[in-house]
Amino acid sequence: MRLPETLAPGLGWPIDIHTLPSDAFLQLLPNIPPFWVPNRANWCDIYLAGHRNGLLDAGPYIEQGGTYDFQPGDETFYTKYTNASNFAVGVYMNDAGYSLLNTEMAGDLYALTHFANWSKSTAKKPGQFLPHAPEAPKFHRQEA
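The structure corresponding to this sequence follows.
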């Protein structure tokens, strides 16, 4: 049994950086690097949820531990699903009508109000690759 290096923030679950559940597949999309996705991920459903619910009701869907946060599972936090979770935030926010800038601002506000150790200088953006409204389904990679 391998000991976890750390615990998932806010969840207290072991972080697994080496394995994936058996239902994982590699998502291939134009113009962005491939990323691991759980079988239950459905970009169309996420897009429609953004349209239906908007930002004010987004919490249960895109916040940490929400419906489209694919990282927690079976009391293990799968870091290989981080990009899929970030992509889900981008898909949701895109159809909720938010630009990349507005999505990043919402992510910063969420981090500021939910994490005691949040710092603007060390914060990572909410998505590594977020679609931009309104021209979806064109996807653009955000350069670091």
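The radius of gyration is 15 Å.
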